[in-house]
Write a structure and sequence with these properties.
The protein is of the alpha/beta class. It folds into two domains: 91 residues, no CATH class; 194 residues, Rossmann fold (3-Layer(aba) Sandwich). It contains eleven helices and eleven strands. The strands form three sheets. A six-stranded mixed sheet has the order 5-4-3-6-7-10, sandwiched between helices. It has a three-stranded antiparallel sheet with strand order 1-2-11.
C-alpha cells in the first residue's frame, strides 16, 4: 500500500500542464470565499435587550461546524475542475534501435606546393582536392578531423575538431601561400602524427596527399612513417597525377605552360604499407573523389546511437472524478445533514 502511494506522489512530482495559464482561474476562489464570509455575517440580526440571561449561547454542536463543509467541498471541486482543464500530464519514453558506434580521429595532410596548380584536375589539383576534402568531412559526422598543409614547410590549419562547418570554411581558404615552395612530405606527415600521438581514439588515421617527390623539410618521410607505426596510426597515401605525363599550369607572365608530373610512388606505397594503410593513385578529380569514397568505406565509425520515442500521458480524468465526488458530497451535506436546499 505504501509503495502505491510512493508511485502516486512520484507522478505528482513529475507532472506538467499542457495549459498552465489556465491555473490562474484558481484565483476565482478568493472572491468566492470572501463573498461567502460576507453573506454569513449578513445573516446575523442585531437585537438590543436589557439582560442577556435568557439568550445565553448554547454549546455548539457537531452540526454547527458541519454547516461550512458544503462550501469547502464546492471550493475543492472548483479547484479540481481548473486543474483538469489545465490538462496535467507526465512524459514517458522508450529507447529503441540502440547501436554502438565509435568515432575516428583523422588528420588530412594536404600538399599545397606549386605543382598543385596543374590543370589536369578541374579546375586545378588544389581546388579539386579542397572540394573533395570538404565533402569527405560531411560524411564523417562522428569523427574529429584536422588539416595540415605542407609545401617547403608544414603547418596546422585546423586541429582535430568535430565542428565540421568550421573545418569546411577553413578548407575553402587554403592557398599555396605563405609557405615556401617545395614538397616536404616528411614534415607534413610528422606534423599530422604529432596531433594524433596522444589521441584516445581507438582508430587514428592520416590521409596524406602529394603530387611530387620529397625535396624539402627536416624530417625524412620514412622516419615519420616509423613514428606513425609506433603510435598505431594508419596512413593512407594518395598520389595526384600521372607520373611522367605533362600537364598545363598557369604561370604569371607566361600563360599556360606544360610541366611534367614527377611522383615518388614507391615512397608513398612504403609509407602506407609500413603503417597498415593503403596506397591510392588518382589521375583526375573523378579518380580522387573515388579514392576518398573508398577510404570512407574502409574507415567505418562506431558510436552509441539510440532512437528515443517520447509521448505524453494525460491525467485529467482522476481530477474530474474527484471533482464530481466533491460536488455529490456537497449536495448530500446540504440536503441530508445540514438540511439546506442546494444553492
Amino acid at each position: 500500500m505504501l509503495h502505491e502511494f510512493d508511485g502516486f506522489f512520484k507522478m505528482l512530482g513529475e507532472m506538467e500542464f499542457a495549459h498552465p495559464h489556465l491555473l490562474w482561474l484558481l484565483l476565482i476562489l478568493v472572491p468566492y470565499i470572501g463573498w461567502y464570509i460576507w453573506k454569513r455575517r449578513r445573516q446575523h440580526v442585531a437585537l438590543t435587550v436589557s439582560s442577556p440571561g435568557p439568550f445565553k449561547r448554547s454549546p455548539r454542536t457537531f452540526r454547527y461546524w458541519l454547516r461550512h463543509l458544503p462550501v469547502v467541498f464546492r471550493c475543492i471541486a472548483l479547484a479540481l475542475l481548473v486543474v483538469a482543464l489545465a490538462r496535467p500530464q507526465t512524459a514517458d519514453k522508450q529507447v529503441r534501435g540502440k547501436s554502438i558506434t565509435e568515432g575516428i580521429d583523422i588528420i588530412m595532410a594536404l600538399d599545397v606546393s606549386g605543382s598543385m596548380d596543374m590543370m589536369d584536375f578541374k579546375p586545378t589539383r588544389l581546388e579539386a582536392a579542397k572540394e573533395i576534402v570538404g565533402d569527405f568531412s560531411t560524411k564523417r559526422p562522428n569523427d574529429n578531423i584536422g588539416l595540415v598543409l605542407y609545401a617547403g614547410e608544414a603547418y596546422t590549419l585546423c586541429p582535430p575538431t568535430t565542428d565540421h562547418a568550421y573545418f569546411q570554411n577553413l578548407v575553402k581558404t587554403v592557398r599555396r601561400e605563405p609557405l615556401p615552395d617545395g614538397t616536404a612530405i616528411g614534415d607534413g606527415l610528422g606534423l599530422a602524427v604529432s596531433h594524433l600521438n596522444e589521441s584516445k581514439a581507438k582508430s587514428k588515421v592520416v590521409i596524406l596527399l602529394s603530387d611530387g617527390v620529397n625535396n624539402a623539410g627536416y624530417i625524412d618521410p620514412r622516419t615519420a612513417a616509423e613514428m606513425a607505426k609506433e603510435y598505431k596510426i594508419r596512413v593512407y597515401t594518395i598520389s595526384c597525377g600521372t607520373n611522367g605525363k605533362m600537364a598545363g599550369m598557369r604561370v604569371p607572365g607566361h600563360g599556360i605552360v606544360q610541366v611534367p608530373t614527377e611522383l615518388d610512388e614507391q615512397l608513398m606505397k612504403e609509407i602506407a604499407g609500413k603503417t597498415g594503410g593503403k596506397y591510392f593513385s588518382a589521375k583526375n578529380e573523378k579518380g580522387l573523389r573515388q579514392v576518398y569514397d573508398e577510404i570512407d568505406k574502409l574507415e567505418t565509425t562506431k558510436r552509441e546511437n539510440q532512437t528515443v520515442i517520447e509521448w505524453k500521458n494525460d491525467h485529467y480524468a482522476p481530477f474530474l472524478l474527484l471533482a464530481l465526488c466533491c460536488l455529490l458530497l456537497e449536495m448530500l451535506l446540504r440536503i441530508v445533514i445540514v438540511r439546506q436546499n442546494p444553492a
